[in-house]
## 1
Amino acid sequence: MSRTDILVTAGELAELIARDRPVHVLDVRWQLTEPDGREAYTRGHVPGAVYVSLDDELSDHGVTGRGRHPLPSGSSLQQAARRWGLRSGVPTVVYDDWNRAGSARAWWVLTAAGITDVKILDGGLPAWTAQGGELEKGWTTVAPGDVTVRFDDLYHGALPTLSAEELADFGGVLIDARAPERFRGEVEPVDPVAGHIPGARNAPSTDLLASDGTFVSESQLRKYFAQLDDADVGVYCGSGVTAAVAVAALYAKGQAAALFPGSWSQWSGDPSRPVATGE
C-alpha cells in the first residue's frame, strides 16, 4: 500500500461528489470523552454521509477478555455495512473530527474484513469545511447495500494482527501509540493499571498529524519511522483505536504493521502480565 491507497484529500472527495461519481461516505465521529457522535452528526455532516458507531458497529462488546473495543465479527460487520449502503465495487471514504481515530479504526476494520478501496479523509471533517465543503443536517438514510465481507474472524483477516500471547515471542519493534504520560505510567485515565508493555517504544499517534489534522508528509513519516525500516512492526494503544492511526501512517509510507487489537486494555487486564513504567 501507498499514501494514495490510504488517504484521500477533501478536494478529491469534493470532486467525486461534484461529478456524481459513485462513492460511499461514512461519518465515524468518536472521541474518548464523547464516544457517541450521533448528535454531532445530525448538526452537520458531509452531504450523503452515513453515521457509523465505533462502539456499536466497529466493536463487539459481547466478546470478553479482548480489551475495551474487541473487533466485531465479519458477519455482524457485513450486516452493518449493508445498512450503511456499501456496495461491491464502489469506493468508500471514512472521516471523523478528532485525531483521525474514528476514521482509522473504520479503515482498519473494513480493510481487515476484506472490503477494498477504503480511504481515510485526510484532515477529517475540518479539512472538508476548510476547503468550502457544505454540511448537511439531520439523518441520512440510504438503500441497503450488497457488499460482502471475506473474513468472519478479523483477528485473522486481510491485515496482520498480534495477540497477547504472540507478543511474548515477538521479535520485532512494538510501538505504543498512546500519549507519552500514559506510556510512562504517570497517568492512566481509563485502564486499571498504568504503564506499558515491556520493550515497547512510544510513538504517539498525534505525532503523525500536522497542526491541521492531516497526516504529515511522506518524507516526514519516513524520517519519523526511519529506525523501523525492514523491521517487523506491531502497534498498540489503549484499546486498539488510535493505534490504527499509526498503522495507517506506516502503510502510507509503504511499510506493513500488525495491530494488537486488545492493546493495553487487554494486556493490563491480566495481572500475570508484566508491566513497565518510565521511558
Note: The mean pLDDT is 97.
## 2
Amino acid sequence: MAKFLKPGKVAIVTRGRYAGKKVVIIKPHDDGTKSHPFGHALVAGIERYPLKVTKRHSEKKVQKRTRIKPFIKVVNYNHLMPTRYTLELDTIKNVLTTDTFKEPSQREDAKKEIKKVFEERHRAGKNQWFFTKLHF
C-alpha cells in the first residue's frame, strides 16, 4: 500500500498527542504485526524543538536552548503525512526495534540515544528543516 513510507523518510503526525510534530520513520510495517494488525511504522520524533540562538547568548544559554526532547512511538500509516525530506538513520536503526517498547527502561535508553543523535545533528547544522517547529 504505502511504498513511499521508507526508513529515513520525514513525516508529520496528524492525530493524537503528537499532532503537528515531525518524525522520522525508523522501521515500516506494511502488513502489520500480531500486536498491531494494521500498517504502521516505528518513528522517532521531536516533542520539544530547540529554541533560537543568537550571538549575544552565552555558551551556557546556547547549551540550554539547543536541547531537544525526543519521543518514540508506533504510528498508524493513516496518521502520518509524508514530506519530501529524508534523514540518515545509520546510528538510530540499531537503537529502536519492536522489542524496545516492551520494557520502560529500554524505552528510556532508546530515547537517550536518539536525543544524543538529534542534538549532534542540530549542532552540526544538518537537516535544519527537521529541527524547526511547524507554524500553521
Note: The chain has a mean pLDDT of 90.
